[in-house]
Amino acid sequence: MTSVRVDKHDGSEAVQDGHSGQSGHSEGYQRGLGSRQIQMIAIGGAIGTGLFLGAGKGISKAGPSLILAYAIAGLVIFFIMRALGELLMYRPVSGSFSEYAREFIGPFAGFVTGWTYWLFWVVTGITEVTAAATYMTYWWDIPQWLSALVFTIILYAANLISVKLFGELEFWFSMVKVTAIVGMILICAGILTLGFSDAGDTASVSHLWSDGGFFPHGIGSTLMTLQMVMFAFLAVELVGVTAGESKDPKTVLPKAINTVPWRIAVFYVGALVMILSVVPWTNFQPGVSPFVAAFEKMGLAAGAGIVNFVVLTAALSSCNSGMYSTGRMLRDLALNSQGPKLFTKLTKSGTPLVGTTVSAALMMVGVWINYQWPGDAFNYVVSFATISGMWAWIVILICQIRYRLKADRGELPQSPFKAPGGIWLSAFSLAFIGMVIVMMGIDKDARISLYCAPLWALILGIAYWVLKSRNPEAAAFSKRDRVLTKD
User: Fold this and answer.
1) Cβ neighbours of 421 (radius 10 Å)
2) Is 254 exposed, middle or buried (0-12, 13-18, 19+ CB in 10 A)?
3) Residue 168's CB: how many other CB atoms inside 10 A?
4) Where is the signal peptide (predicted)?
5) CB-side exposure of 200: number of CA atoms within 13 Å?
């Protein structure tokens, strides 16, 4: 860090845009996301395929103890989000994680983080389209690859809109998911207290411990579900990407982040407690949504169809968010001379059209995966999405630790939204993520992602070496830093 940069960095800049302390319009984006939209994007971002589809596999492996896995992992997610919140209030920018990586770790870290997070959303888009294609088979016997193709095309078209319309669509997508889960919890509560439906005579909270115990397959099996559990929480950090397009980031973002605990308590822990109390965990199986299966066991066939529509919406919503973030990540890389200049171009409505188009085209790979391996496609892409997504969390935590140490020494302004526990809870969260990665190495189904990670790192290393040799600007900390040091 240069002395010029420290001298020019004041508190007013910390709550504005990351480029020379100007407003968010210096990046060309429109600040069109209001409080209502940011809140629902934050809530809906954590409700997707991992919960609606992936939980079926988790229940079959861990039984009722999956509830504990979600609760503990959810607490760690809250620590990560508070670390992100501290950084966002220090400097809210659209580049988010990659910008912080450039500033607090180095230009290569920013390069790796930007491209890895972009890849994460491309892979996640494939995951969500795969899940959506799976849900379609509930009603019609059509090839998964065909559904995946149609959905990818539709979502790409939907992203060619202004950020305000994107936020409005995501608001209603999230509202559908939230309403469905709350409604399901209320129905299950009614069955437990009033005893209606086919499950009324047998429904009991004792199912949480009477069918083989709370840990029916042992604590080890519960630990092995952590990679699936962490996958369910991927995308909660998306609120950081929206920082550059939020109307009032200093007020809106802390509120959105502070909703994380009750989101997890209601939508994950609360929902699973109710489902597993009404229907014994032994009735669930991998590859089948536990929400759909629960309504079928209750004898509420119409309810199962409705829930299947809701989870279909959830998957498409997550994929839609993926297309939103990929275009912006590619543009951030390009603005920092770490990606093709073509990605810097915006439409009149502020949409990074080229980056979104390229990302959508790569998501078409999901169509081929569904065609080649319709039964295993979901497990393959989930594993790789998990490790690439967790890299963003690792970077957030490392950057928060380094930022806090600098701020405490007076080298940088203090954030008005400090993470609780300072650097210690961030260090604990890093250790927890490390444990999850070890569990992934033990799990033969998840191990494929660890094989892919070194290959991806090698590709990025070679690409950065070539980029740096051709364009020395790519080795600068960030576009913002280059502007400041010229002043």
Assistant:
1) 14
2) middle
3) 18
4) none
5) 11
**Contact (Cβ atoms closer than 8 angstroms) between residue 280 and residue 294:** no
Q: What is the DSSP annotation of 217-233?
A: T-HHHHHHTHHHHHHHH
At residue 151, the pLDDT reads 86
Lowest-pLDDT range of 9-18, 348-357, 442-451: 9-18
How much is the average pLDDT of 221-236?
A: 84
Distance, in Å, from the CA atom of 367 to the CA atom of 279, rounded to the nearest integer, reads: 34
CATH superfamily assigned to domain 3-477: Amino acid/polyamine transporter I (1.20.1740.10)
Orientation of helix 377-408 relative to helix 66-90, angle to 10°: 50
pLDDT at 18 over 50: no
Q: How many helices (H) and strands (E) does the chain have?
A: 25, 0
Model-level pTM? 0.84
Write down the domain spans for the chain.
Answer: 3-477
Token pair 């119409």 in the structure block, residue: 302
Q: What is the DSSP letter of 246?
A: B
Q: Tell me how far apart the alpha carbons of residues 61 and 238 are, in angstroms, rounded to a whole number.
A: 29
CA dist., res. 56 & res. 54, Å (int): 5
The residue ranking higher by pLDDT, 288 or 423, is 423
Q: Which two tokens stand for residue 267?
A: 């939508």
C-alpha dist (Å) from residue 244 to 12, 109, 168, 239? 15, 21, 17, 10
List CB contacts of 87: < 8 A, sequence separation 6 or more: 100, 396, 399, 400, 403, 415
d(CA 45, CA 41): 6
Sign of CA dihedral 199, 202, 205, 206: negative
Q: Is the pLDDT of residue 129 over 60?
A: yes
Return the sign of the alpha-carbon dihedral for residues 88, 104, 397, 233. Answer: positive
With 70 as the cut, is the pLDDT of residue 108 above it?
A: yes
Q: What is the DSSP letter of 415?
A: P
In angstroms, rounded to a whole number, what is the distance separating the alpha carbons of residues 349 and 94? 16
Alpha carbon dihedral 234, 56, 309, 261, in 10-degree steps, equals -40
